[in-house]
Specification:
Belongs to the GlnD family. It is built from 39 helices and 16 strands. With 860 residues, it is of the alpha+beta class.
Length: 860
Amino acid sequence: MNSEAFDRSAIVAGCRSRLHAGQTTIRERYLGEGDAARLLRERCQLVDEVLCDLWRTLALPASLALVAVGGYGRGELYPASDVDILLLLPQAPDEVLTAQLERAVALFYDIALDIAPSVRTVEECSHTAAADLTIQTALLEARLLAGNRELFQDACKELKGQIDPQAFFEAKRMEQEQRHRRYQDSPYSLEPNCKEAPGGLRDLQTILWIARAAGYGDSWEDLAQHGFITQEEQLQLKRCVGFLQRLRTHLHLHVGRREDRLLFDFQTALAERMGFVPTDTRRASERLMQGYYRTAKEVTQINTILLLNIGAAISPPPEQCPLPINERFQNRHDLLDVVNEDIFDRHPGAMLEAFLLMQKNSDLQGMTACTLRALWHARTRIDADFRRDPENRACFLEILKQPRGVLHELRRMNQFGILGRYLPNFGKIVGQMQHDLFHVYTVDQHSLQVLRNLRRFLADEFAHEYPLCSELISDFPRCWVLYVAALFHDIGKGRGGDHSELGAVDATEFCAEHGIAAEDSQLIVWLVRWHLLMSSVAQKQDIADPDILGTFATMVKDERHLVALYLFTVADIRGTSPKVWNTWKGQLLEQLFRSTCRTLLAGGQVPVRQGLIEERQQEALRLLRYFALPDAVHQRLWKQLDTVYFLRHSAEEIAWHTRALHYRTRVEQPVVKARVNPQGEGLEVLIYTKDQRDLFARLVGFFSRAGYTIVDAKIHTTRHGYALDSFMLLDLSDRGSDRAMISYIEHELKARLNRQSPPEAPGSGRLSRQVRHFPIQPLVTIEPDEKGSHYVLSIAAADRPGLLYMIAMTLAAHCASLHTAKISTLGERVEDTFLISGGGLGEAANRVRLETELLERLKL
C-alpha cells in the first residue's frame, strides 16, 4: 500500500471512528434526557467539526467554500438525515481542480455519512435556484462551514436579490397544496408521514422558509415579534415542534435508517420509547397516535392562520372598506371576517352561522385569520344548552342542505373543533384509529371521506369516474339525508358492541331533536344500521341465487332505499382506502343493484325511475321525430357517446348533434355547424372532427379573432376518438346579426381545421372597468381524479380578452391533453374546469410548475 492510499485510509478510518463515537454519545444522552432539539444541534456540531477538519486536510484552494444547505444548513440533523453540502466555486474548474474535487467528493462519501454533495459556481447556483424551487429553498438555509467567506456572502447576496417574496410565497403555498393532496389532504391516515403529510414537520418548515424569504426572521420568536402569532400560539407551536422532533428522532433511531412513515410495525415500539403505556381500553400505540393526530391538527390550524397573515403582509390587499354581510360578519377581501373579535363569546350561535355564510356567499374564498382564531378559542362555548337551542339545530341542518360547500365547511368545522363539540359522540371518534386491513383513515376522517365521495357523485367534472352513481344521485331527492347517514354510520366505533346499532341509536336521537321528517328519519337510521349490508351480500353471497336476491330485495324494501344504499356503499368502500376499491367490487355491486331493481319490479314494487339520462334520451328522440327521421337513426352516434356526454348536454342539444352527425360518424373531413342560440342571443357552434393536437387552442383562437367571446364550452371525446365540442358565443363587436355570421364560421373554421393551421393568437383587448377597479384574485388548482390517470384543473379569475386562449396555449406548452372542459362565465368572473392528462402531471413538481405559470399569466 502506497503512502497516499495509507493516508486516505487513515483519514477515512479516523473520521468514521470519530463520527461513530460522537453519535453514540449523542444518542445515549438523548435516550436518557429526551431532548430532541439538543440531539439535532449536537449532531450538526459533530458533523461540522469532522467536515471542517477534512476540508483542511484536503488543502483545496482558498478561493473555494464549503457550505451546509437544507436541513443541515438549518442546523437540524436527525439521526438518519442526509447531510446536504455545497462545494461553492468562484468559476468553472479546470482539469486540475476537477480532479481535486472528484477526490474530495469521493472522500466525503467514504466517511459513513449520508452525504448529498453538489458542486456549483455562484452563477450556477443562481440559475438552478431560479429554475428549481427545491434548490432555491435549500440555498435559502445555506450556512458557511469553511473556506472563502467573501464568496459565500456573494452567493447569499445573489440569491437574496433573486428571491421575489410574493412569488416564493405563492410557489411554496402551491407546493404545500400539492404535497397535501398526495396524502388526501388529511393528517389522519393510520400510517401517516410525520414529515410530509398535512400537520407534519414540513408544514412548519414551510412557514419559516416563507418568513425567511420575506425578511420576517427565521424563528417562531421572530414571527411573534412581527405580530404574526400570539404568545399562546407560540407556546403551542413549541409544544408541537417538540413532539414531532421527538417522534421523528425516535423513529430514525428505532428503524436505523431514514424513515418518516409511522408504520404499524413501528408504532408500539415508538410508544414505549416515548413513555406511553397501555390502559384497560387502549393500547400504548393508540395513545401515541392520538397524541400525534392532536399535534398534527394544531399544526394545520396554525399553518392556516400563519399563511393568511404572512400572505397579507407580503402582498397587502388594496385598501377597501369591508362589505357588511350582517350585524356579525363582513366580507374583507373575499374572506369572511368577524365584525368584533368577541362575537362568538357574545353570540355563540354565530359559530355555526359562520360556516353557513361561507356556503351561501360564493364570493367568499375563506375566513380571515381573526375569524379562525376566534372560532378556535370559542369552541368550548358549545355545550348542552348550545346543542338544545332550536336556532342552532336549524342552522346545523341548513349547513347539510346547502347546494355547495358542505364538505369544505364540515372539514373546517372538524379541523377547528366545532363539529366534535356539536356532535359529542362524533368528537369521541376524532383521531380514533381503526386496526383493520381496509381503513387507512381515522374514524372521523373516514366518515368525511364518505361524505366527500357522495358529494363528488354530484359534480359534473367527476361524472366520468362512476357514471352510474352520478346518474342515480342526480335523481335522488334530498341528498342531504345521505350526508347525515355518513356522519353517523361509524359514530358507534370504539364504544364496544355493534357500531351499526349504536350509530342507529345516535342517528334516531339526532333526527328527533332536529325535527327531520319521518320518511327521511327512517331512511337515515336504516342506512346507518344496514350500511354494510350491500357490500356483504355482493362480496360474500351468490347474487345469482334468486332466493338471496329476494331476501335482499325484501330488506331494501323499495327504490329509494336501494338507490340510497348503493350510493352509500360505493362511497363507503371508496372512503376506506384508495387501494380498497377495484373494478371487481364495482361490478359486483352494480350487478346486485341492477338485479335487485328487476326483482323489485317483478315483485310488484314501484320500478326504478328511468333516470336523468334516459329521460334526456327519450326527449331527444321525441324531438328527432319532428324531422321525420327513422327511429334507429341515433344508434350509430349514441353508441360512441358515454354517460358523461348525456349528463352534460340537454335533450335539445343531443337532438341537434344527432341530426347533424348521425350519417357521418366516421367522416374524414371536419364537421362544423353553427346556429343562433335557441335560448337567446349569441351563436352555438358544433365541431366534430378526428381529435388532433392543440385543437382546443385553435378553436379558441379562431373564435376570439372572429370577435366572439366564449361564455360556455363543452368539450367531449367520443369512444372512437373524435372530438365533439360545442361552444356558446357572444358577439363582442356588436355587429347586430348573429345569423349573418353562421356561414362564415362554418366555412372558415372547417377550412382551418382541414389545413390543421397553427393556433391564431387573438387580438388585444381591454379589461373592463369593473375588473380594473375591483380585481379578482385568481385561483388555480390541479387535483387528480379517483384513478390518478387524469387531473381536474380548476381556474377562477377575472374575465379578460384572450383568457381562454392563454389557458389553452399554456396547456399545450406543457404537453397536457384536454379531454373535457366546462367553461363558465359569471359576469366578470370565470370559473373554468378542465379534465387533462399527460404533460408529466403525475409528478408533483410538474403540476406545481403548470399551476405557477397559469397563476402568473392570470395576474398579468
